[in-house]
Amino acid sequence: MEYLVKDISLAEQGKNQLEWAEMHMPTLMRIRAELEEKKPLRGITVAAVLHVTKETGVLVRTLKRAGADVFLAASNPLSTQDDVAAALAKYDEINVFAWRGETEAEYYSNMEKIIKHSPQIVMDDGGDLHALLHDKNLTDTVIGGTEETTTGVVRLKAMEEQGVLKYPVIAVNNAYTKYLFDNRFGTGQSAIDGILRATNVLLAGKICVVVGYGWVGRGIASRLRGAGARVIVVEANALRALEAVMEGYEVLPMRKAAEMGDIFITATGNINVISKEHILKMKNGAILANAGHFNVEIDVEGLKQVSRSRRVIRPYTEEYELINGKKVYLLAEGRLVNLAAAEGHPSEVMDLSFSNQALSVVYIVQNRGQMTPKVFDVPREIDERVAELKLESMGIEKEELTQQQREYMRQWRYGT
Questions:
Q1: For residue 125, which of 262, 266, 293, 292 has the smallest C-alpha distance?
Q2: Among 37, 94, 237, 399, which residue's beta carbon has the most beta carbons within 10 A?
Q3: Binding site for substrate: residue ranges?
Q4: 1: pLDDT confidence band, cut at 50, 70 and 90?
């Protein structure tokens, strides 16, 4: 076993964190019990680039007990929980290469360490691992992979369309039990958690600008409104912009919203959606945060160019004095605010996402050689099973169709 973590002495603390997460992830624990008995991943090497959090720890522990040999690196330089990384290495024999505060060179070096072991399954969050394997032409041993987030799915779809994707990938992000819950409820809560931990500002009465109205943006906007904020949505897609209007939000282009907002949160998956030109228009004291996967949504280099000084004024809060005399505050270096300044999604919502991950990995192994190199959605039976198990764990009983009702839904002759 190999590992490279910040401080192995943190392992006991990390073990407690993992136990807490397991208590709040009953669906995945139910799946773990089944997989541990059957060992469907025996002999399989898994390379995973995921946020190294307590919830991810529960997932990789599950894969290990299903028989896999697991190599884990971080999908963001600031998202690793060092105590969890230490616990996984010490108590679970997970090959972990991750610590909080990695440089860009260390980030890619750790990824290269895990791909040296000829993985058969590749799990990714953001697409960097998939891209690295293809760039280095190291895909020969790969049976297939999974992708956790919207940004990564977009990249993989581009690879598929350009004919360069070498193995099948299941887009876990596209599962109903992922995007409707993780993206909306998970990021909706955890992004605001990160902003509040970094700033401790009052949300009530603030003008908050949410840039992007996908499932992440929807969740953030909803929770901001629930906290008493006045919410403006910036959206380039006409359908989503219309939906935001019908939900009661004000919809504006960024050039106008820039002058009005107190807090800005990006959630687009695109580059420079807040530019230096926008920043120069902002109010004195404006707060900038990013909830998208990569640190490209806010033009941080542009911000530096139009600033005459900067300093860290609070943990994860950097004050920039602009050339026009105003001050703006960038949170978590423009990286994922929910993971850099807080703990990421609550365990209860990751229970759904990572149950999909575990079952998708097993599905790929069981269907090796039968899936072509393309991006697949999570099989419907997996999605529905995860939902069923989650309801059971919550003690909720849903309605069941009668035989007459099932037959009615399969016929076409009878209407009124």
A1: 293
A2: 94
A3: 53, 125, 148, 178, 182
A4: confident
- What percent of the chain shows pLDDT beyond 90? 97
Beta strands at 250-251 and 45-50: parallel, antiparallel or unpaired: unpaired
Is 168 in the same domain as 195?
Answer: no
**Is residue 405 situated within a structural domain?**
no
What is the overall mean pLDDT for the chain?
97
What CA–CA distance (Å, rounded) separates 307 from 295? 19
- 408 domain residue, yes or no: no
In terms of DSSP bridges, do strands 317-322 and 327-331 run parallel, antiparallel, or are they unpaired? antiparallel
Q: Is 126 exposed, middle or buried (0-12, 13-18, 19+ CB in 10 A)?
A: buried
For the residues of 59-90, what is the DSSP string, one character each? HHHHHHHTT-EEEEEESSTT---HHHHHHHHH
Q: What is the largest CA-CA distance in the chain?
A: 74
Domain identity same for 265 and 354: no
165 plus 215 within the same structural domain = no
Measured CA to CA in angstroms, residue 277 lies from 165, 171, 305 at distances of: 37, 36, 11
Which range marks the domain in which residue 363 is found?
8-178+345-393
CA distances from 35 to 66, 67, 131, 299 (A): 5, 8, 29, 45
Tokens 């997996």 sit on residue:
382
CATH value at residue 144: 3.40.50.1480
* Domains of the chain: total: 2
CATH assignment at residue 264: 3.40.50.720
Determine phi and psi for 265, rounding to 5 degrees: -130, 120
Task: Please indicate, yes or no, whether residues 220 and 246 belong to a single structural domain of this protein.
Answer: yes
Whether pLDDT at 69 is above 80 = yes
User: Do residues 376 and 168 make contact, with C-beta atoms less than 8 angstroms apart?
Assistant: yes
Whether residue 144 sits in one domain with residue 14? yes
DSSP count for the chain of H helices, then E strands: 18, 15
At residue 407 the predicted structure's pLDDT band, cuts being 50, 70 and 90, is very high
Residue set of the binding site: 53, 125, 148-151, 178, 182-183, 212-219, 235, 270, 291-293, 338, 345
Known binding site for NAD(+): residues? 149-151, 183, 212-219, 235, 270, 291-293, 338, 345
Is residue 415, in this structure, part of any structural domain at all? no
Task: Determine the Cα–Cα distance for residues 234 and 214; give it in Å rounded to an integer.
Answer: 11
**What is d(CA 28, CA 352) in angstroms, rounded to the nearest whole number?**
8
Say how far apart CA 231 and CA 229 lie, in whole Å.
6
Q: Which tokens is 67 given?
A: 């028989």
Residues 79 and 161 in one domain: yes
Residue 189 resides in a domain: yes
